[in-house]
Amino acid sequence: MKIIVTGGAGFIGCNAAATWVSRGHDVVVIDDLSRRGTDRNLAWLRERGAVSFHQHDIRDAAGLDRIFAAHVDADAVVHLAGQVAVTTSVLEPRQDFEINALGTFNVLEATRSRCPQATLLFASTNKVYGSLPNAKVALVDERQTLVDRVHGVGEDEPLDFHSPYGCSKGAADQYVLDYARIYGLRTVSLRQSCIYGRRQFGIEDQGWVAWFTIAASLGRPMTIYGDGRQVRDVLFVDDLVELYDACLANPELVKGRAYNVGGGPENRLSLRELLAELGRRLGKPIEVKYAAPRPGDQPVFVADVRRAQADLGWAPRTSIAAGLDALFAWVSEHRSLFGP
Q1: In whole angstroms, what is the distance from residue 6 CA to residue 25 CA?
Q2: Cα–Cα distance between 292 and 226 in angstroms, integer?
Q3: Three-state SS at 198
Q4: Which of 197, 211, 203 has the alpha carbon at shortest distance from 286?
Q5: Fewer CB near the last or first residue (10 Å), C or N of the chain?
Q6: CA distances from 196 to 15, 52, 146, 192, 320 (A)
Q7: For the chain, what is the radius of gyration of the CA atoms?
Q8: φ and ψ of 53, to 5 deg
């Protein structure tokens, strides 16, 4: 297969691209290399095998069209490029809109014009459900818990875009689904929860599992916004790539569909529980400061992954312990990547 990966030098992108290169696929990476660590991920990816690389900003529609015109035989487009932090979207809403909403529109149009036969996977987000105003949330065993959604949040949950990031990704999500209805493209929206793993250069505002792992390993100060009992269902990146593969293997089945993608109820993790896990690995307690919650931050989100399991036979396989071991080992082995 020929697979175009936007954001292919990012955390998820380079892991997916490396897997596909190892299998002999022709991988085309598009990335503007603006995010910290992407240059290192690209160098690492090139060590895995030959990739075609285009340094490009997806906001530039004409340039994106030229790149796609050179790859009209693409079998798949995996659209991962985007602005990824809620806090950044609040500070820079126009930039957030242009990257996430307009950038995704540009990718859709380039696909429609140049390679309409390709299957397009879009990395959407659980933020399309906002603060889950209809859910009953309670503190259970020191975790924020969705007490009336034992399997997690399903795809039929009402959309509730909360924050500029939620709006931009939500608009993109709906465009992706509508291009299947209106133009017949084989598009699928994957509403991803908390993805973590090797080669994740997490920042305080996004990629929190990696951020806390890196900061704890290097002895850097850490701040928790809220009481630390916020919960996410974490999914190891290798499991996510397996879902990408399942979608690409079943394009007509997933066409025009949305899937909630996370670790599910079996892989729930609060901030406090993460810190305890890291403390055990370091052999000492982790000290943090606490601050007020940030706008748009969900107290709890757990994805109901049963639709993906029913349609594609996919389910998370990596336990929290195994995933954290892998991430912790990678951070420990590559401390020099994170500065002094």
Answers
A1: 16
A2: 5
A3: coil
A4: 211
A5: C
A6: 11, 26, 22, 11, 10
A7: 19
A8: -120, 135
* Paired tokens of 195: 């993805």
- In whole angstroms, what is the distance from residue 116 CA to residue 23 CA? 24
CB-count exposure of residue 324 (10 Å: 0-12, 13-18, 19+): buried
- Beta strands, E only, 141-256: 143-146, 186-192, 194-196, 223-225, 231-236
> Coil, strand or helix: which one is 138?
strand
State the DSSP code for 194.
Answer: E
Do 278 and 214 form a contact (C-beta atoms < 8 A)?
Answer: no
Residue 17: name the closest of 36, 4, 32 by CA. 4
Contact indicator for 223, 193 with CB cutoff of 8 Å: no
- C-alpha to C-alpha distances, 227 to 39, 41, 168, 294, nearest whole angstrom: 35, 34, 28, 11
Q: Return per-residue pLDDT of the chain as tens, 340 residues.
A: 999 999 999 999 999 999 999 999 999 999 999 998 999 999 999 999 989 999 999 999 999 999 999 999 999 999 999 999 888 999 999 999 999 999 999 999 999 999 999 999 999 999 999 989 889 999 999 899 999 999 999 999 999 998 999 999 999 999 999 999 999 999 999 999 999 999 998 776 678 899 999 999 999 999 999 999 999 999 999 999 999 999 999 999 999 999 999 999 999 999 999 999 999 999 999 989 999 987 767 789 999 999 999 999 999 999 999 999 999 999 999 988 887 6
Structural domains for the chain: 2-338 (3.40.50.720)
Residue 6 CA to chain centroid, in angstroms?
A: 13
Tell me 338's DSSP state: G
Going 336 to 217 to 211 to 154, the CA torsion angle's sign is: positive
Per-position DSSP letters for 1-12, written without gaps between them = -EEEEETTTSHH
Place of tokens 């380079």: 14
> Which residues are known to be catalytic?
165
- The first and second tokens of residue 189, run together, are 């929206």
Provide the CB-side half-sphere exposure for 130 (13 A, CA): 13
